[in-house]
Amino acid sequence: MKSTTSKFLSHLAIGLLVIPFASNATQNNLGYNIAAKADRSDRGFEVSAVDLKMRLIDKKGQETERLLTMKTMEVADEDKGDKSLIIFNSPADVKETKLLSHAQIIDADDQWLYLPALKRVKRISSANKSGPFVGSEFAFEDFTAQELNKYSYEYVSEEACGELTCAVIDRFPKYENSGYTKQRALIDTKDYQVRKIDFYDRKGSHLKTLSLDNYKLYQQAYWRPLTMTMENHQSGKKTILEFSDYQFDIALSARDFIKSSLK
After folding, report:
1. Which of 11, 1, 9, 83 minimizes the C-alpha distance to 44?
2. In terms of Cα–Cα distance, which of 217, 87, 82 is closest to 146?
3. How far is it, in rounded angstroms, from Cα 140 to Cα 163?
4. pLDDT in tens, 144-156
5. 30 vs 32: CA distance, rounded Å
6. How far is CA 187 from CA 6, 75, 142, 195, in A?
7. Has residue 39 got a pLDDT over 90?
8. For residues 221 and 157, what is the distance between their CA atoms, to the nearest angstrom?
């Protein structure tokens, strides 16, 4: 997620956005402009890496943990998606499992999963991208960059979100095999960061809610949430991602994000 999940997810001309909102703007343009400002607030980091703890909590409250590292390479062209690599560090049964993602705009994202026990790289088919990612409440499609032009937008309203005010934006996936028909995002009107997303399944039912909390500003430029909580309203399960040790300006190249690098 841009900052994939961290980039979970956020990335027009800033001058087009005026608060209070321009009275002659259409709802669709307004929704797009706000989403664009959120998206572009994150641009320019080029590469990053972060450690994260994944906490899987079932409906009885029982919990298991996994430790991962996520690396991201930014692609400056907004008509092309960013690249990310997720590596599992523990527990032993999933250690060295890797997920490589090349986000696309209209077409299906390219994703490859390396399974160390089989020493095999498996391509994730379009039909499986809405499936759960290694037992979590995140889908494979949640773990690619949430590129601006992957969605169409509609401005809904403005409402309080904690101590902040948020614009409520509906975004609709352009990718036909998405597991979602709609996502309702709350974007604060101060720093333009995504604070919450409600996901609606193919039947239009409310499926999941993603909350993004504890934002921290890095290098006086890049906001990152330190906690993401995905709650599944239908299964009663939730997955919490806790991020630590964000690094920028590190030695990563395009070769670190190609299929042959997984083995």
Report:
1. 11
2. 82
3. 32
4. 767 788 899 999 9
5. 5
6. 15, 23, 18, 6
7. no
8. 28
